[in-house]
Automatic annotation (TrEMBL):
Species assigned in the record: Rhizobium phaseoli
Residue ranges of DNA binding: 33-52
Origin superkingdom: Bacteria
Protein's UniProt keywords contain DNA-binding: yes
GO molecular function: DNA-binding transcription factor activity; transcription cis-regulatory region binding
InterPro entries hit by this protein: Homeodomain-like_sf (IPR009057), HTH-type_TetR-like_transc_reg (IPR050109), HTH_TetR (IPR001647), Rv0078-like_C (IPR049484)
Record's protein name: TetR family transcriptional regulator protein
Keywords: DNA-binding
Pfam families: TetR_C_41, TetR_N
Domain HTH tetR-type: 10-70
Amino acid sequence: MVNRRVETMEENRRKLIAAARKAFAEKGYAAASMDDLTADVGLTRGALYHNFGDKRGLLAAVVDQIDTEMALRAQEIGARAGDGWQGLLAEGAAYIEMALDPEVQRIVLLDGPAVLGDPSQWPSQSNCLQATRQAVERLIAQGVLKPVDAEAAARLLSGAALNAALWIAASDAPREVLPKAVEAFAALASGLLKPSA
């Protein structure tokens, strides 16, 4: 009996996140109606409040889901790049490039910061930061990067990628901004490289 209730709650949560993701992408956070959203999935506003507290809590869950997907996609791209250094650059460039995706743009890069505040404080960004820190630590241990503080370097790299993505999302010409942002990100990151002996 308890298991079925938990399954129903999880199913309701998934339905609400999927419906909100669609509504926020199509209409934006401010214009998305919670009554329409809950009716579309056959649930009440009570289910929304029970699972997320309010509309803002629902946005936080959607942003977390998309931001987590972005980080995983960037890590997969980085893993295919060959060595750790190229992987770190590819990961950053991939994250920046995702700012061209209309769903990412609207929900994560425009509405997310406007409603939820500083993205560097989001749990999903914290997970991404830890993965970057571990990559930096490995590269320092391998002698690829200068022996700088790994957390500081990871925060600066993550911040640069995030701010580049925010710039692209807010730009009137995102496709023109993208190559400039990726090139500058690579140049900044290259400053961490240890000079070859």
